[in-house]
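Action item from last week, closing it out:
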Amino acid sequence: MLALALRAQRLLDATRAVDFLAPLALRLYLAPVFWMAGTNKLAAFDSTVEWFGNPDWGLGLPLPWLMAALATGTEILGAVLLVLGLGVRWVSIPLMVTMIVAALTVHWQNGWLAIAEGSGSLFATERTVGAIERLDRAKDILREHGNYSWLTENGSLVILNNGIEFAATYFVMLLALFFVGAGRFLSVDYWVRARLVARD
């Protein structure tokens, strides 16, 4: 039994030869997420500032122009740096802060779920159960009065709950990158560090 456990451990250890793939995958997954978020804010920057500052229908944040500019710049620059693998541990910090702010100001009051699920879900709330009831009614109306199969042939109809699920997931991914870095071989950070160590 011990020999089998040792063999299994050696097999696991052998996978470390390609351990650079994990941070690369995290970087390449997160980069388009932040690029789209940042460029969407930039494309409608005045509206973004208004939404950041308005206490009635927006976030009610202080210094909305500055906050919007910081969020937009962090997301766009962060996306570029993640793709390059440059300063990944450093850029993970403001990106994590952005995710915390988003989770607390935009998503927190909506609970955990990003997409509404019914009462069978562990994280369902009254809000999501009510959303599913309305979704089921909307589907009935579409089945009766519309071409439901055409409407859903490329995917199911859902209701966005806008909970903290995505922001929390991105935060955890960034936290992993903060600790492990950009990864070997396929990042600028790796080659910069290798050159600095060689000079030392």
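Closing note: The chain has nine helices and no strands.
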